[in-house]
Design a protein that fits this description.
There is one protein chain. This protein has a domain of 274 residues. With 530 residues, it is mainly beta. The chain contains three helices and 36 strands. The two termini are 30 Å apart. The strands form nine sheets. Strands 1-28-27-25-24 form a five-stranded antiparallel sheet, with no helix packed on it. It has a five-stranded antiparallel sheet with strand order 26-29-30-31-32, with no helix packed on it. This is PQQ-binding-like beta-propeller repeat protein. It comes from Streptomyces rubiginosohelvolus. Keywords: Membrane, Transmembrane, Transmembrane helix. Pfam families: PQQ_2 (PF13360).
Length: 530
Amino acid sequence: MPDPQQPWYTPGPPQQPVPGNPYASGDGAQQGFGTPLFGPPTPPPPTPRRRFGRGPVVAAVVALVLVIVAGGVYGLTDWGRDDPTKPVAKKSPGPSGSASPSGTPAAGAPKLSHIPTTKEVAAARKPGEASAWIADDTTDLPKQSNKVHDLWIVGDTAVQALYRKVTAYRLSDGAEVWSVTLPSAVCETPANPTPDGKVVVFRHERPDNERGNLCNQMQMIDLKTGKQGWHKKLDEPGDDSTFIVYSAISGDVLSVARGMVAITYRMSDGSKLYEIPRENKGKCVPDDVAGGASRLLVSSECMVAVERGKNYGQVRELDPRTGKVLWRYRMKTGWRFGGLISMDPVVFTIYNDKDIVSDWRITVLDPKGKHRVTFDARDKGFEQCAGTGAGGDIQPCWGASVDKGLIMLGGQNQAGAYDVKTGKFLWGIKDNRLRTLYALRAEGGTSMRIYEAAGPSTPGRTFLMGPRGAGTETEVVKHPAATAPWEYEMFSGHTAYVDGRLVLTPTSVSGDENHKPVREARMLSFAASP
C-alpha cells in the first residue's frame, strides 16, 4: 500500500511516441490546442465535425467493432502531504489528445459517420461494462462553432440549449422528452434553474448570424414541461452593448450583467426589481453575477487608476429580493475575481491582473464574507479552473468543486483534495497518460469519485480514490468500449453526476458538413450495471 507521507509526485514511465500521432511525444509533455479553453469567453471547440444529415448507415456490428479496443494499464501515481519537489506551474496547452488541426482524427480514433443507437450500444456491451445511452441530434446547424450551453438536471431529465433549440432528454434512457425551437440562436444561459425548474434563456435579436446581432431577448421556459412563459427584451440603459451578457438565477430572481450594468428581474413575470449599484463613487462596476438556490453574488472591477495593476476586484453578496448588501470582500490591489468554485461555502479563484494565466490563488470566505484562507495550488501543478483560466462566466469554475469539507481540483493528468477550512493539501493522484480527471463529488468525507476522460480509442472510467493512494482505487463504473470515440469527442465538455449516473455533453458542435465525415453525439450517459 502506498505511503501517503511520500512525495505527492512520482514521475511515471516516459510516454512512448504513438506512430502517426503528432501529439504524442516521448517526454510525456502535455499536448493539445496550445491555448487555454477560456482565453475567449467560450472554450475552443474540437475540430469541426459534420452536422448536416446522416452519413451512410453502417451495420451495427461493423460500426461498433471499429471502436472496441482492448483496455490498457492505468498509470496512476499518488501524492503525500509534504512535497520536497514542487513542479513549476505553467500555462496549460488545453485539452490533450485532440484531433489534429489538419482535420484528421488523432491516432486510433476511427472516422465516424454513424452514431450508434442506444440499442446498438447495448448489443455491443461486454460483461461488467456500464449500461449506456447515446443521444443524437440531426438539426442543421450553421457552418460555424455552435456553443452547447449549460447542462441542467431537472427531475428525471437532462436539459440543454444548442443553437435555436432547448431539448430535454430522459435520464434513464436518453429519449427526447420535449424540445422547444426558438426564433433565433441562444447566446447565454444561467448555470442553474429556479428550484421549481424554470429558467430564462437569452437569444439573439435577429435570426441571422451577422455581426451586430445583439443578445437581448429573454425567454422564460419551464424545464419540466418545455412550456414557454414570458418574453422580454433587454431595454434598460446599456442595451446597445448587449453583445456579451452574463446571467444567474437566485431562487426566484434573475440577475443580468452586461455593459457595466447589472439588473435583477422577477422570474415569475420578468418585471424589473432593482439595479445593482456601482460603488466607490462609481468606480466599482458590476461585471458578472453568480446564483444558487437562494444566494446572489456580484463580482465587480474597481477601476481606481489608469494602470490595471493598481485596480482591484470585489465581490458582494446581495439579498436577491431586496438588493441589500449582506457583505463585501475586496481583493488585494492588482487582483481580481476569477471563477466561483462553490456558493456555500463561498470559494473562488483570484488572479493577478498582470499575469492572468499562471499567477492565481484560491480564496475561502466564512458565512459572513470574512477571509478564512487563501492558498496556492500551483505547487502541485494545478491550473486555474482546470486550465480554462480566467475570463468568460465566473460560474462555474471548471474542474473544481467543494463537497463534505473538501476542495476538489481536477485537470489534465491529476486530481487532488484540500481542506476547505485550512487550505491544507490532503492527497492527490497523477495520471501519466495525459488524461483529464474530473472530481465529481466527495465520498465519506475523505475520498473522491473521479471521472477519467476517454482517450482517442479507449473509454474513460469512473472510480473512487482516497488518501491511501494510487493502486488502491476502486473502479465503480466501467465505461463501455463501444462508445469510446464519442466519449472522446466530449473531452473538456459539460459533466453532471446524479443518482449514480454520469452525463456528458460537448461544449460546442460544428455545422461544417464539408470539413470531414465525422459525426458528434449530442449527449452520452453511463450508469453502473444493476
